[in-house]
């Protein structure tokens, strides 16, 4: 048997932010949970966040999770949160439309609701929550490690490259030809997205762990 080095969560988790990514069904959630539990057992304060719309973290911990974080009583020091992109989008939509209710005609409100119901809104709302977790200084103080159990790679890569795409978009265009234009308040978010992108790119803060299914190659 060749010399196989087993994955050691405590050796791999050197940075504050850890991303677990890879194809669907390869074991991202299992490895992310095992790492989170190992770190908490070693006395670290750990926050595990799922950004996968098809997350099964709730099944793993047998607990209904929310986007604020729930303590896992069997594992002191571990808090788990589940970002629900649809709920985040609904919250975002209401924050934009709410102030106009009762002030604008019903047809105008309906029009706004329709405009803010597309997949762009969902993606932006999900990314928004995700970057809040990545840049919130209180969370950074409260936790030694923040782990992200992410959606299959393509989706995650898209999410990770959004900050640079958006900051370009925000500086070049203030009005809305694309789907981003319909959203107010993005300009205010620029600093958050910039910090998120910087944190992601900084190897002393962030590690990306690519989870794959091990297969023996034929030695010939
Ligand atoms: N090392 C492993 N050996 C065998 N089965 C595994 C292993 N890791 C995960 N599994 C199983 O594979 C399935 C998918 O794992 P999961 O962690 O949910 O993957 P992902 O989050 O990448 O979709 C689950 O049924 C899980 O129990
Ligand atoms: Mg998973």
Radius of gyration: 20 Å
Q: Provide the structure class.
A: alpha/beta
The CATH architecture term is 3-Layer(aba) Sandwich
Beta content comes to 5-15%
> Which ions and ligands are bound to the chains?
adenosine-5'-diphosphate, magnesium ion
Count structural domains: 1
CATH class: Alpha Beta
Sheet with most strands: 6 strands, mixed
Uncertain regions: pLDDT < 50 for 5+ in a row? 175-182
Looking at CATH, the homologous superfamily is: P-loop containing nucleotide triphosphate hydrolases
Find the count of extended strands (DSSP E, 2+ residues).
Answer: 6
Order of helical and strand elements = HEHEHEEHHHHEHHE
Q: How many separate helices?
A: 9
State the distance separating the first and last CA atoms. Answer: 14 Å
**What is the helix content?**
40-55%
Shape: elongated
Mean pLDDT: 82
Lateral arrangement of strands in the main beta sheet? 3-4-2-5-1-6
How does this structure look, described?
By secondary structure, the protein is of the alpha/beta class. The chain has a single domain, classed as P-loop containing nucleotide triphosphate hydrolases (Rossmann fold, 3-Layer(aba) Sandwich). It is built from nine helices and six strands. Strands 3-4-2-5-1-6 form a six-stranded mixed β-sheet, with helices on both faces. β3 and β4 form a beta hairpin. α6 crosses α9. The longest helix has 20 residues. The two termini are 14 Å apart. About 4% of the residues have low confidence. The site of adenosine-5'-diphosphate has 8 residues, from α2.
């Amino acid at each position: 048997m060749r010399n196989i080095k087993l994955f050691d969560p405590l050796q791999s988790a050197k940075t504050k932010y850890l991303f677990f990514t890879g194809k669907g069904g390869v074991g991202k959630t299992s490895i992310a949970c095992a790492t989170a539990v190992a770190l908490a057992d070693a006395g670290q304060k750990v926050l595990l966040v799922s950004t996968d719309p098809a997350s099964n973290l709730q099944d793993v911990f047998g607990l209904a999770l929310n986007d604020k974080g729930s303590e896992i009583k069997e594992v002191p020091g571990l808090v788990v949160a589940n970002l629900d992109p649809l709920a985040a989008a609904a919250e975002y939509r209401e924050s934009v439309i709410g102030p106009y209710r009762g002030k604008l005609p019903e047809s105008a409100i309906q029009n706004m609701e329709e405009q803010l119901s597309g997949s762009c809104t969902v993606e932006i709302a999900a990314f928004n929550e995700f970057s809040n977790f990545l840049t919130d200084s209180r969370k950074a103080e409260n936790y030694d490690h923040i782990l992200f159990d992410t959606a299959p790679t393509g989706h995650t890569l898209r999410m990770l490259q959004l900050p640079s795409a958006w900051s370009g978009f925000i500086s070049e265009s203030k009005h809305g030809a694309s789907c981003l234009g319909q959203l107010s308040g993005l300009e205010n978010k620029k600093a958050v997205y910039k910090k998120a992108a910087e944190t992601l790119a900084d190897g002393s803060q962030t590690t990306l762990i690519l989870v794959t299914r091990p297969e023996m190659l034929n030695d010939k």
